[in-house]
Amino acid sequence: MFVCQWHLDIPYGKQGEVVRIMKAWHREKLASSEFRRAHSSRLLVGHIGSSPSHVVDEYEFESVEDFEAALASMAAPRFRQHSEALAPYVVPGSQQWRVLRAIP
């Protein structure tokens, strides 16, 4: 099992707007893309010891190939509106994927 986390930072005071955009994108991803292969998913924000301006979009996949298929499916035009809505809130250079292998 692989835990795939998209980490990004946002400007101070913009968490509400970002969460709204990411929840809408999340619903669309699970309904219309290969992200439906994920066994679980969740949205996390910093609270104690991590800045509230730090956001993590997390998915659990059976394989790296499932994750890669999910990422490739984001090229579909239907997802552009979500990406464009989120872009002004992402601190440049802060976004990155972290892929961890879960040990049974």
Topology:
Blueprint: E1 2-9, H1 15-32, E2 40-45, E3 54-61, H2 64-72, H3 80-86, E4 96-101
Antiparallel strand pairs: 1-3, 1-4, 2-3
Q: Report the portion of residues in β strands.
A: 25-35%
What is the class in the CATH system?
Alpha Beta
Number of helices: 3
CATH architecture identity: 2-Layer Sandwich
Strand pairing plus helix content: what structural class? alpha+beta
Topology pattern, helix = H, strand = E: EHEEHHE
Shape: globular
DSSP E strands, number:
4
Q: Span between N and C termini?
A: 8 Å
Order of strands side by side in the largest beta sheet? 2-3-1-4
Poorly predicted regions are none
Please characterize this protein's 3D structure.
The protein is of the alpha+beta class and 104 residues long. The protein has one domain (2-101): Alpha-Beta Plaits. 33% of the residues lie in helices and 27% in strands. The chain contains 3 helices and 4 strands, in the order E-H-E-E-H-H-E. The chain has helices at 15-32, 64-72, 80-86; strands at residues 2-9, 40-45, 54-61, 96-101. Strands 2-3-1-4 form a 4-stranded antiparallel beta sheet. Strand 2 and strand 3 form a beta hairpin. Helix 1 packs antiparallel against helix 3 (80-86). It is globular and about 35 Å long. The N and C termini lie close together (8 Å). The mean pLDDT is 95.
